[in-house]
Amino acid sequence: MSLGIRPPGFEARFCEACGGRLQRRSVLGHARLICPHCGYVMYQNLRVGASVLVDMGQDAVLLTRRSINPGFGHWVLPGGYAERGETVADAARRETREETGLSVALEGVLDVYAYRPSAVAVVVYLARPAGGTLLSESDECFEIRAFVESDIPWDQIAFGSTRDALRAYFARRVAP
Ligand SMILES: [Zn+2]
After folding, report:
1. Which CATH superfamily is domain 47-174 in?
2. I want to staple 35 with a disulfide (CB 3.0 to 4.6 A). Which of 40, 82, 109, 176 is the partner?
3. 91 CA to centre of ligand 1 in angstroms
4. What is the whole-number distance in angstroms between the Cα of residue 14 and the centre of ligand 1?
5. Model confidence over 118-169: pLDDT tens digits?
6. CA 66 remoteness from chain centre
7. Domain map of the chain by residue range?
8. What pLDDT sits at residue 118?
């Protein structure tokens, strides 16, 4: 599953409990989507994504080039949404394996990225390869390859979280 970003103005119109049409009302001072039929409050929480910055050695990191929208043709860190029943770390390992063929050992969290008004918060993990075979393409990717910093296609990065995570990662590597 990809890290798709809903259009900024997107909000649900129908109740996920009973299918009734939602109304926007103030609840305890906050604008909420309420179902007038069953009373359900539809909170618009952030969705959690997991991305992985895989250290491929010799100062190179893995990026995949997306063959789906959003971000078609642009480069992104391996990753996707965490599903119920798995941890965010499970999602990070699963998505990396599905998209790149690699099993990875996670080595901590670089940072968490969220941007208003996007509905997504992305946890970016640091990792090293721990098995598997690197694919050259996969279901959602035209191309999968390792980049050193000077080769990163900065004007063809799909998402702000990938761009900001790469900047933070390379800045950290040269710090004393
Ligand atoms: Zn309802």
Report:
1. Nucleoside Triphosphate Pyrophosphohydrolase (3.90.79.10)
2. 40
3. 30
4. 8
5. 889 999 999 999 999 999 888 888 999 999 999 999 999 999 999 999 999 9
6. 13
7. 11-44, 47-174
8. 86
Compute the distance from residue 22 Cα to the ligand 1 centre, in Å. Answer: 8
> What letters, b where the CB count within 10 A reaches 16 and e where it falls short, cover 69-97?
eebeebbbbbbbbbeeeeebbebbbbbbb
In the chain, % of residues over pLDDT 90: 76
What's the mean per-residue pLDDT of the chain? 91
At the topology level, CATH places domain 11-44 in: Ubiquitin Ligase Nedd4; Chain: W; (2.20.70)
Q: How far is the CA of 116 from the centre of ligand 1 (A)?
A: 27
Identity at 157, one-letter amino acid code: I
Distance from the CA of 19 to the center of ligand 1, in angstroms? 6
Tell me, in angstroms, the distance from the centre of ligand 1 to residue 173's CA. Answer: 51
CA–CA distances in Å: residue 143 to residues 1, 13, 33, 125 = 17, 37, 41, 21
> What is the Å distance from ligand 1's center to 25 Cα?
14
